[in-house]
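Support request, please re-run this one:
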Amino acid sequence: MIATPGRTGTPAERPRLAISSCLLGRPVRHDGRHNLDRFLTETLAPYVDWLPVCPEVEAGLGTPREALRQVSTAQGPRLVTRMSRVDLTGRMTAVADRRATQLDIDGYVFKAKTPTCGIHGVPRHGNDGVDQRNRGLFAGIVMERHPLLPVEDEGRLRDPRLRADFVERVFAHARLRTFLDGDWRPRDLVAFHARHKMQLLAHDPLLYREAGRVVAGAGARPHGEVAADYAEVFRRTMAARTTTGRNVNVLQHCLGMLALDPARRSDLVEVIDSYRAGLVPLDVPVRLLRHHARGESATYVRDQTYLTPYPDALRE
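Re-run finished. Output below.
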C-alpha cells in the first residue's frame, strides 16, 4: 500500500483504493511510458491509500513489451500479443483470480479501454469486425468477483457527476469496513446506521428500510451473520443512483428536524425548491443545512454522513 506524504483524513477511515499503476506515473505501459492522472495523484491522493496494480507486469511481461489485444475465436474471447499472437489468456486469468481473492479494498480505478484493465469500450477483434462493447480481461474478472465494489476508470472520472458518485461510495465503503473490522456490538451498529440513514435513503428507500430491519434484529442473531447481511445491503444501497426527487425528500427530512425561525425555514425551503427546479446544484442546500445544523439541538442532523459524505476539498 502506498502511503502519501502529507496525507489527510482519519487514518482508520481512509479509503483503500486499488489503481492501475500507470495512472500513478509508473512507467509500466507496453511502450515504457505512463498515464499519470493529475486528479488521482494530486487531488484525491491526500485522502486515500493506493494499492498499485499492473496485471501485465504481474503476468511476467516486461517493460517495454509487445502490445496486447482481445480477439474472438471459436474457443471464445482470448488475450493475445498484437503481432506474434501469443495467447496470454490463461496467464492473465491466473493473475486476476489471485488478485480478486486477495483484494481488501474500498474501490478500484482502472486504466480506460485497455485489453486488460478497461471497464467498458474495449475492442475485441474478430472476423466480423471489431466489437467495442467489452471489458478488459483482468478488470472483468475482478468486477465479476466483486460486483458491489465501486469501480471507475480515469476517463469517466472526468465527468463531475460520475466522479462525485465514485468518491461518495468509496468513502462510505471505507467507513463500513472500518466499523465492521472493529470490536462492535449491536448498539454500535445502531449508531453507525443512524449516522448513515439520510445517505442510504437518498440512494434507495426500499433498501434503506431493508438495512433498518437488519439493524433492528441484530441483537437476536449471530454476530457474523448480521455483519454479512448489513454489509451486503449497505453496499447494494450505495450502488443505487440518487435522484433529484430522492435528494429533495432527504433535504426535507433534515429540514423538518431543525428548529428554525420562520425566516430561516423559508430560505431553506426556497433553496430546496431551486435545487428541485435545477437552478442550483445539490451542494447549495446541503451547505445551508450544515450551517443551520451546527447547534447542540441539531446533533442528529449535523452528524448525518449525507451532509459530509467525503472531504470538502474533493467537491467540485
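Residues 160-181 form the longest helix (22 residues). The CA atoms of residues 21 and 52 lie 5 Å apart.
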